[in-house]
Amino acid sequence: MPEPIVRRTDRGWELPGIANLHSHAFQRAMAGLAERQTDPADSFWTWRETMYSMAERFDPSLLRDVAAQLYVEMLEAGYTSVCEFHYLHHAPDGRPYDDAAAMSRALIEAARETGIGLTLLPVLYMAGGFDGRPLAVRQRRFGHEVDAYLRLLDTLRADAGASLTIGCALHSLRAVPEAAMREVLGALPADACIHIHIAEQTAEVDDCVAVRGARPVRWLLDHAPVDARWTLVHATHLDAGEIAGIAASKATVAICTTTEANLGDGLFPLRDYLDAGGRFGIGSDSHVSVSPVEELRWLEYGQRLVTHRRNIAIGASGSVGETLLAHAIDSAADSTGRDARADRVVLDAAHPLLAGATTEDVADRWIFAGNRPLVREVDVAGQAWVREGRHVAADAIAARYAKAIARLSA
Fold first, then answer.
1. How far does Cα 118 stand from its chain's mean position?
2. CA dihedral 356, 359, 360, 364 (to 10 degrees)
3. Tens digit of pLDDT per residue, the chain (410 long)?
4. What are φ and ψ of residue 180, in 5° steps?
């Protein structure tokens, strides 16, 4: 039996930090604001119009203040690093800021202020669909040509360090033509982490088959050097061959359970993927929830609802909680490109929900015993950022966030 992930120390129940593998920071400002029907057939595609309306209101200072609040919440929940899938590059009319990296620098500033480890993933976004249509008006601020995109990566790498990794994000197969994908991949450093949205929606799968003659994951595996550097975000709709192919490639799937549920995307085929030896982590994506507990709990509960069985995500430990945490922690280094060995999360051993806990059951208690916050302390790279359950700068950052929301709502 493997060693338990959560161990008792003189500080409390201690575990490694958890990586949030998929984040769109600006979307925290709209959490809870897309829950009114806009169409009898509301779906991801109608939600996206609400998201575009929010996206066009942001400038660098607003993005910094919203991201800082989000990162405080992540740290207080037990996330110690975040992969920021960042496509909000330009001014709303599509023109670059005087500093083409201004929006990226806003995220870097927020991460440095809050102490979270940041893997910044500037997004290449070029087309409005598999047919190569131009970007729509509301997508203009997302767009780059390849040369400008590569210049952005070069600019940002100058700031990289122990707490900041610069990777690459291809928005999706529908937004990045094949030739552009090949050119970008050929220009990346050999150790760059690469993330891509894929197979999130059934419509995306159907369009890919119609235009490229294959399902999205199958096409990617056949046309790109997918390996452990790659993180496939969502990958919800897979056939048996794709499940086996991802597992064999050693890529990580970033499962974003609460967002996938909120958008009506579907359920990832977890048990088949685990049986194939696949790797996964978790992300909070649109941030309708900022909690690794909720992502992991509902990842398991979704499987129970469709299989009518219990305890689906079982590994060598025999514990669902240990198995889920092990995957989230073990996939982090490849997906983030970051050494997080000095990151620590400490759970409150004196909390009633952990009364009588043992190393064999503390992970299960944390994930499945309720919604009371149990994280007491969080260290990132050896520095204390959360004490007694509160971020050290929580109040000042929350005050700025409130002002930012007022501006966004005006």
1. 11
2. 70
3. 678 899 999 999 999 999 999 999 999 999 999 999 988 988 998 999 999 999 999 999 999 999 999 999 999 999 999 999 999 999 999 999 999 999 999 999 999 999 999 999 999 999 999 999 999 999 999 999 999 999 999 999 998 988 999 999 999 999 999 999 999 999 999 999 999 999 999 999 999 999 999 999 999 999 999 999 999 999 999 999 999 999 999 999 999 999 999 999 999 999 999 999 999 999 999 999 999 999 999 999 999 999 999 999 999 999 999 999 999 999 999 999 999 989 999 999 999 999 999 999 999 999 999 899 999 999 999 999 999 999 999 999 999 999 999 999 98
4. -65, -40
Spans of all domains in the chain: 19-342
Whole-number Å distance between alpha carbons of 116 and 118? 6
- Model pTM greater than 0.70? yes
Whether residue 234 lies in the annotated active site? yes
Note if 285 is an active site residue.
Answer: yes
Domain 19-342 belongs in CATH node 3.30.2350.10: no
Question: What are the beta bridge partners of residue 19?
Answer: 81
Instruction: Choose the catalytic residue: 234, 287, 351, 391.
Output: 234
Query: Which entry of 285, 334, 348, 361 is annotated as an active-site residue?
Result: 285
Distance (Å) of CA 142 to CA 109, 131, 186, 210, 279: 20, 18, 22, 25, 30
State the maximum Cα–Cα separation within the chain, in Å, rounded to a whole number: 60
CA 133, CA 123: separation in Å to the nearest integer? Answer: 18
CA distances from 86 to 26, 135, 177, 195, 275 (A): 9, 17, 19, 11, 33
